[in-house]
Amino acid sequence: MNKKKKSSTKTITKRTDSIAPASRASSVSSYDPLDAFLNEIKQYPLLEPDQEKELAEKYQETGDVSMAATLVTSNLRLVVKIAFEYRRAYRNIMDLIQEGNVGLMHAVKKFDPAQGVKLSSYAAWWIRAYILRFVLSNWRLVKLGTTQAQRKLFFNLNKERQRLTSMGIEPTTDVLAERLHVKPREITEMERRMQSEDVSLDVEIGDATGRTVTRGDLLPSTDALQDESLSAAIFNDDLAFHLQNFGKTLSGKEAVVFEDRLISDSPKTLQEIGDQFSVSRERIRQIEKRVMSDLREYLEAEMDGYFSSESGA
User: Fold this and answer.
1) Residue 214 pairs with which residues in a beta bridge?
2) Which of 263, 241, 245 is nearest to 103 (CA)?
3) Are residue 53 and residue 132 in the same domain, yes or no?
């Protein structure tokens, strides 16, 4: 009887030994860096508005790195939230989160609590800017959008095509161009870029002299200087931030004209807004002119005279 028990015990032990390595291997292979990151950021508590403001003020005064780290870690969830908004444009979510984290750190460095804006609201602009620039630079090996207009077209083209299809309208090139306020050739060019396959620039090819070169060797450099690109990105981010703040000062017809016409991706016509408020098209045009004048004065005051110096050139 005892021999049978010992024998069965040995059998169970052997089976357990044979299963354990496979189990350990599967646990290693199933490691997900995203899950690990999400679990890690849970340990950092969210700050109350008063705590955040007090800490930001102290950091501004002292430059204490530990305070900056606390402000950053308490907003890491915001980075993840925004990164997931771009997951369809770029598959590797961890790359997006990493870029967003850089934007968050930059936002903490530049944040001024005296402006009366929450850090999360201010940081969201920087996080989106860094993620968006990364997506545009890496969606293809060759950049799709190098100007602000091209970036706007890149993100709106498919969305507008789907919208027209759902309305029973055939999304032809001319229709899309009219809806997006661009030329038909710009639609054609962007569609060609988006549908083309990636081509490696490192593939070796021969030239007329018999030398072995790559496609990359034969391409002229058209990139802007790094300091120029960074300067433009910072300006665009600051402009977006001030546009948001200016919008908060408006109400009624002025707010609608600003949001639905001046800064909208699909601006309404003067007539559409006039019908909304039962006023004439000319009245809305006058309001638009006044809002644009106020906006210019606001930006001249907030952005170190950039616009005034430009107009006087």
Assistant:
1) 204
2) 241
3) yes
Distance CA 153, CA 182 (A): 8
| Distance, CA of 302 to CA of 248 (rounded, Å) | 15
At 204-244, the pLDDT tens digits run 655 555 566 665 555 555 454 545 555 566 666 667 777 88
Three-state DSSP string of 112-169:
CHHHCCCHHHHHHHHHHHHHHHHHHHHCCCCCCCCCHHHHHHHHHHHHHHHHHHHCCC
Pair 139, 113: CB distance under 8 Å: no
Percent of the chain exceeding pLDDT 90 equals: 19
Q: Which two tokens stand for residue 106?
A: 């930059």
232 vs 170, higher pLDDT: 170
Q: Which of 110, 138, 166 is the last residue of a domain?
A: 138
Q: What is the CATH number of the domain that holds 74?
A: 1.20.120.1810
Cα separation, 93 vs 76, in Å, equals 14
Domain assignment present for 52: yes
Of the two residues 34 and 228, the one the predictor is more confident about is: 34
Together in a domain, 152 and 180: yes
Query: Residue 291's domain spans which residues?
Result: 228-303
Q: Are residues 65 and 118 in the same domain?
A: yes
For the chain, the domain total comes to 3
Question: Domain end: 121, 138, 155, which one?
Answer: 138
The b-or-e profile of 275-305 (16+ CB within 10 A means b, else e) is eeeeeeeeebeebbeebeeebeebbbebeee
